[in-house]
Specification:
This protein is of the alpha+beta class. It has three helices and five strands. It has a single domain, classed as Heat Shock Protein 90 (2-Layer Sandwich), CATH 3.30.565.10. Strand 2 and strand 3 form a beta hairpin.
């Protein structure tokens, strides 16, 4: 499944509806449904908030490929970013000493097997993949 959404936080309700349709159509288990929701919300929100430039929409793609869940977001006409170079969330530090930000990406990385960022000619593609053991209800 794939759909384009307005590049604004107000589009999150429509994004969540899309994710719920995917979960229902694939009859995903509870743990997998949680992972999809978390990843899509975090990645979509980060693209809207942090990417410079950008068209008026972001494409979200969800699919099952064999025993893998693939979550893909494409953001168009944006400046290149060095996301993997950002400071990791200081999860080993007390709350009052942690830097703001990065925890959502940390959670996505801890739930998914891989999180990749590819930039080519103005398009940033973020892909999260997860091996599934509890694919269906």
């Amino acid at each position: 499944m794939e759909q384009a959404f307005p590049r604004e936080l107000g589009a999150l309700d429509a994004v969540f509806d899309f994710v719920e349709r995917f979960i229902a159509s694939e009859r995903l288990g509870e743990a997998t449904a949680f992972a999809v929701k978390l990843a899509v919300e975090e990645l979509f929100t980060n693209l809207v908030r942090h990417n410079t430039g950008g068209r008026d929409h972001i494409e979200v793609g969800l699919e099952l490929v064999d025993d893998r869940l693939v979550v893909r977001l494409d953001d168009f006409d944006v400046e290149p970013v060095e996301i993997d170079q950002q400071t990791p969330a200081g999860t080993d530090l007390p709350l009052d000493r942690r830097a703001i930000g990065g925890l959502g990406i940390h959670l996505v990385k801890s739930i998914f097997d891989a999180l990749t960022y590819e930039y080519h000619e103005g398009t940033l593609r973020v892909t999260a993949t997860k091996h599934l053991e509890d694919t269906h209800v």
